[in-house]
Amino acid sequence: MYASPQPQRPRPVSVAELTRQIKNALEGGFRNVWVEGEISTSKPHSSGHVYLSLVDTDARIDAVIWRSSLRGLRVQPRIGLKVVVLGRLSVYAQRGTYQLVIDRMEDAGAGAADAALRELRAKLEAEGLLRPERKRRLPFLPAKVGVVTSGAGAARRDIEAVLHRRSPQIPIVLYPAVVQGDGAARDVARGVHVLGRTPGVEVIIVGRGGGTAEDLSAFNEEVVARAIAACPVPVISAVGHETDTTIADLVADLRAPTPSAAAEAAVPVRDDLLMHLDGMARRLDRCVAYRLEQRRQRLSHLTGRLGAGLRFDDRHLVLRRLEGRLQGVVVRYTGRGRRQLAELRTRLGEQHPRARLARARNALERCRGRLAELGPREVKHARSDLRVLAGRLQALSPLASLERGYSITRTPEGKVVRSADEVAPGDEVQILLRRGRLTGTVTAVHPAGGEENR
């Protein structure tokens, strides 16, 4: 019999060669892959990179976001966030492991948020809150301007700068609201409600600076839309940049592309108004002079025509009567125009920054006087209360009892002995006195009610 030849074993490959083949296969086949999962871990590195893990109900994959990609992400990674990411597989040959290199990250709940936003818009449209005919005209020269925005944001500075530049005499009433995060929508709605019922506020600006869709989400809430719709005064919405549009923009009486544009729409330029008033006064003077000259010419013409049929005295009386009527009309119209001009100048002068500053200083001095009067009185009452409490504390102090000759007996473990039944003859005890302490041994125990205590 002949033995069958043994099959030849294929040439083995090295670990490095096998890893290279795996690396080429994975990295070549998964260059751009969309993955949905929940961030279970997220660890920023000192280099600026972020290492994280994506999980679902059945599996987990490690991932990394390089520092250069992290700055351009619309959504920043945080534990518990469900995301959709675009990335590529990368194999680390030294350890034989692979990870997902993330280039783009989006919130997986954005689709649900868009659907909820569309549903809310349809609901408000059905109620007629978005109809153009319900939009109110802004007041020409409001007594006060209300502003609902962040107290520390750039939007507040932009609005105040524009309002002060255009009409410094108009006061600004600020409601510093939370415009981002939990409770922001309720706080913005509360600000619209409060300023809408503040005396003198005739227009309200609701706004904030730009940001992501998540940053502007408070202005897409129903509570904000209904507060704007129910506001008794016109509302200007200035949320985000010109390309951002929120539900608040659609419900408001006017939508401004930026907070600065909202301030420009709210008030006119005071210097332009003054120039316009001066021009109207000059036109009124010219018109009165022209009308007076016309009347005089007409009167002269009539006097000439009537001269042949009237005596000189009659013509003189008629002329005097007509001149009196004409002068009365001129004086009446001229005086009315000048009174209106003086009233407008007085109103603008009362709202001048120097006058407002003087009133504020007077109020501050009155507050200082009240504080100087109440301070010593409150300190005196507090010292009296302190002395009473110190006396009560001294009366209740254990040291006061020791001062009167009493003592405290303790076991070596520090337990206070309150009854003779708690020790036995031969036990060691410590006796605490007002000054110092004694160590002794129990020689006899006399329980309460015994013959020894009678």
Q: What do you see in this structure?
A:
With 454 residues, the protein is of the alpha/beta class. The protein has 4 domains: 96 residues, Beta Barrel (OB fold (Dihydrolipoamide Acetyltransferase, E2P)); 125 residues, 3-Layer(aba) Sandwich (Rossmann fold); 71 residues; 45 residues, no CATH class. The chain is 46% helix and 19% strand. The protein contains 12 helices and 13 strands. The strands form 3 sheets. The protein has a 5-stranded mixed β-barrel with strand order 1-2-3-5-4. Strand 8, helix 6 and strand 9 form a beta-alpha-beta unit. Helix 4 runs parallel beside helix 8, helix 5 runs parallel beside helix 6 and helix 9 runs antiparallel to helix 10. The chain is flat, with a radius of gyration of 44 Å.
Secondary structure: elements and pairs:
Blueprint: H1 15-29, E1 33-44, E2 50-55, E3 60-65, H2 67-70, E4 82-92, E5 97-107, H3 110-126, E6 144-149, H4 154-166, E7 172-176, H5 184-196, E8 201-208, H6 222-230, E9 235-239, H7 247-251, E10 254-255, H8 259-266, H9 270-306, H10 312-350, H11 353-396, H12 398-403, E11 408-410, E12 428-432, E13 437-441
Parallel strand pairs: 3-5, 6-7, 6-8, 8-9, 9-10
Antiparallel strand pairs: 1-2, 1-4, 2-3, 4-5, 11-12, 12-13
Helix pairs in contact: 4-8, 5-6, 9-10
Strand order of the largest sheet: 1-2-3-5-4
> Could you tell me the strand content as a percent range?
15-25%
Major beta-sheet overview: 5 strands, mixed, barrel
Overall 3D shape: flat
Percent helix, as a range, is 40-55%
Tally of DSSP β-strands: 13
What is the third-level CATH name, the topology of the largest domain? Rossmann fold
Number of continuous helical runs: 12
Low-confidence stretches: none
SSE string, helices as H and strands as E: HEEEHEEHEHEHEHEHEHHHHHEEE
Under the CATH scheme, which class of the largest domain? Alpha Beta
Alpha-carbon distance between the two ends: 123 Å
Overall tally of domains: 4
What's the CATH architecture name of the largest domain? 3-Layer(aba) Sandwich
| Average pLDDT, all residues | 84
